[in-house]
Amino acid sequence: MTRVAVLHGGMSAEREVSLRSGAQVIEALREAGFETIPVVVGDDLGALIAALTPKPDVVFNALHGRFGEDGTIQGILDYLGIPYTHSGVRASAIAMDKAAAKAVFAAAGLPVAPHRIIDIAELADHDPLPPPYVVKPVNEGSSVGVSIVRPGSNRNPDIVREWNFGPAMVEQFIPGRELTVCVLDDRSLFVTEILTDEDFYDYTAKYAAGGSRHVIPAELPEDVTAQAKHIALAAHRALGCRGATRADLRYDSATGRLVLLEVNTQPGMTPTSLLPEQAAHAGLDFPALCAWMVERAQCRV
Questions:
Q1: Does the annotation mark 9 as catalytic?
Q2: Cβ–Cβ under 8 Å, residues 264 and 248
Q3: Distance between CA 130 and CA 266 in Å, rounded?
Q4: Domain 115-172 - what CATH class?
Q5: 14 is catalytic
Q6: Of 14, 69, 78, 140, which one is the catalytic site residue?
Q7: Domain layout of the chain by residue ranges
Q8: Does 153 participate in catalysis according to the annotation?
């Protein structure tokens, strides 16, 4: 029987999300017939290595955020020679760095929003871009730390005062509809439209029960659906990802503009997450999806 260590928890702002993802994955892998070893990850690297001794056959990486999806844990697992799910070191590190990822997307001819990287103190003096614009951490996920600055909002001092994320990206706000496309290796699944009563698809909308509503497949013109799926797969390939990813996009139906925001190399695996939902719509239930990831685990790639 294949022994799978499920890493969850971690040290990032997304620890609670990771714990929920990991719990779901552990249950699903057991249902799929794997021997599972739950490993709650903290800040003790020695304890993590001890938990992976003797080596499991595979690590299922259910970590999110810094140290979990930025290439750090991937490098450790490569060093230990343990195959793991999701993308490798380089793709994970680039995707987690929003500035680096956008440079890769732009070089591949994919549509991205105008943006700048700033010291957050600059926000207190003036608007780095004409409002409305989005302020987001360069190296966080799950919409942690994201704010929208609208004309006349006067929120800049509050954002600066509460900021503890290092450099910030300011990005032109793209009006319109929130879309996401999941990719499994070499195929895009579906386009999902995300509807929420929140100001935008923030942390609460993503993870609170009832925080968002998902329309799958999204009700879009056929050419827009095809374009969104093409962009998601092209972004996956441009970064050098493997396994499962999720691309987030905005679509302005008034102008026909479709913009790639980012690619998530560690999509959530919680009850409200988008990847399990799209996979189920494609006929792949949650245990089968987790098994699919385990079967494609690799290291040093």
A1: no
A2: yes
A3: 32
A4: alpha beta
A5: yes
A6: 14
A7: 3-85, 94-112+175-290, 115-172
A8: no
Per-residue pLDDT tens digits of the chain, which is 301 residues long:
799 999 999 998 889 999 999 999 999 999 999 999 999 999 999 999 999 999 999 999 999 988 999 999 999 999 999 999 999 999 999 999 999 999 999 999 999 999 999 999 888 888 999 999 999 988 876 567 899 999 988 888 889 998 988 889 999 999 999 999 999 999 999 999 999 775 544 444 444 555 579 999 999 999 999 999 999 999 999 999 999 999 999 999 999 999 999 999 999 998 779 999 999 999 999 999 999 999 999 987 5
Pick the CATH number of 94-112+175-290 from 3.60.21.10, 3.40.50.2000, 2.40.50.100, 3.30.470.20: 3.30.470.20
264 part of the active site: yes
Report the alpha-carbon distance of residue 179 to residue 248 in Å, rounded. 6
Question: For this structure, is 246 an active site residue?
Answer: yes
Q: Of 78, 262, 273, 277, which one is the catalytic site residue?
A: 262
Residue 171 bears catalytic tag = no
The CATH architecture that domain 3-85 belongs to is 3-Layer(aba) Sandwich (3.40)
Taking the C-alpha atoms of residue 102 and residue 169, their distance in angstroms, rounded to an integer, is 11
**DSSP code string of the chain:** --EEEEEEE-SSTTHHHHHHHHHHHHHHHHHTT-EEEEEEE-S-HHHHHHHT-SPPSEEEE---STTTSSSHHHHHHHHHT--BSS--HHHHHHHHSHHHHHHHHHHTT-----EEEE-TTHHHHS-SSSSSEEEEETT--TTTT-EEE-TT---HHHHHHH--SSSEEEEE---SEEEEEEEETTEEEEEEEEE-SSSSS-HHHHHSTTS-EEESS----HHHHHHHHHHHHHHHHHHT--SEEEEEEEEETTTTEEEEEEEESS---STT-HHHHHHHHTT--HHHHHHHHHHT-BS--
